[in-house]
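Key result, reporting period 2: structure in, sequence out.
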């Protein structure tokens, strides 16, 4: 049972720990460790992804309840296509199932669902579901949930460079106009604040092509737990640790 409420939650509960002053605006999560979770239990990897997808729903709702404004979850990378066909198919089926559920489930929480990544690589059926999920949730007022699917940060940066180069060629912008703001607003996360905190369960010390540009000054928390076991208490602990970090953004 979680105890920590840093922001406003639906029941207007107050947080218990008064030392916790700062709630990250934007949290990123690399949902890693599903395969190992399944292996430890003698189950197929797909069972780990099913458990991971259930947890995605729990943690998303919790983030929305405590007042997080933006949550970005890494669901499928541009590199994940290299996995065995059977595992990729199981993941695609899970995405369909959970997006159908998300359509109604996240409505009560007013969650805006967006997708970051090249979604044109997915089946027409999944693309249709992605489109419908985005359209139906676009006018909600709650937390923005970015689901990174077929996402790779290097691809995203290449896309931005191409867009800007085209504008330079056509004379719409000049070379001197190119600055950090222009690059940030050419990424999938245009208009959103950079993540303050990225959490990576499963004990791997890697960024794995996730929000490279956006996480220049992000605090990283790596914890030795597999994603399906990551609980709301773990999230609370991460928030406590985040509050203990001294963010200097290159200053002193
Ligand atoms: C990484 O763990 C996890 C993935 C590649 C898939 C994550 C997807 C989900 C949790 C489903 C989410 C559903 C929606 C609708 C967003 P891994 O398989 O690399 O684990 P391992 O390192 O232990 O092998």
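The corresponding designed sequence is given below.
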């Amino acid at each position: 049972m979680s105890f920590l409420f840093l922001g406003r939650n639906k029941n207007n509960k107050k947080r218990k720990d008064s030392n916790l002053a700062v709630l990250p605006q934007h949290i990123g999560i690399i949902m890693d460790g599903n395969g190992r979770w399944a292996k430890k239990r003698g189950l197929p990897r797909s069972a780990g992804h099913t458990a991971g997808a259930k947890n995605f729903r729990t943690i998303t709702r919790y983030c929305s309840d405590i007042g997080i404004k933006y949550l970005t979850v890494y669901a499928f990378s541009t590199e994940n296509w290299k996995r065995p066909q059977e595992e990729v198919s199981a993941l695609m089926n899970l995405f369909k199932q959970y997006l159908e559920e998300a359509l109604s489930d996240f409505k009560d929480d007013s969650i805006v669902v967006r997708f970051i990544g090249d979604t044109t690589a997915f089946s027409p059926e999944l693309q249709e579901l992605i489109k419908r999920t985005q359209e139906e949730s676009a006018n909600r007022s709650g937390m923005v949930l970015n689901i990174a699917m077929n996402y790779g940060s290097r691809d995203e940066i290449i896309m931005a460079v191409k867009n800007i180069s085209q504008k330079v060629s056509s004379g719409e912008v000049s070379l001197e106009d190119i600055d950090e703001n222009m690059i940030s607003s050419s990424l999938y996360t245009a208009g959103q604040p950079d993540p303050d905190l990225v959490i990576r369960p499963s004990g791997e010390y890697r960024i794995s092509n996730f929000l490279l540009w956006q996480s220049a000054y992000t605090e990283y928390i790596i914890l030795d737990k597999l994603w399906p076991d990551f609980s709301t208490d773990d999230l609370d602990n991460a928030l406590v640790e985040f509050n203990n970090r001294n963010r200097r953004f290159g200053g002193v």
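Confidence is low (pLDDT under 50) at residues 1-10, 12-18. Residues 45-66 form the longest helix (22 residues). This case is discussed further under Risks and Mitigation.
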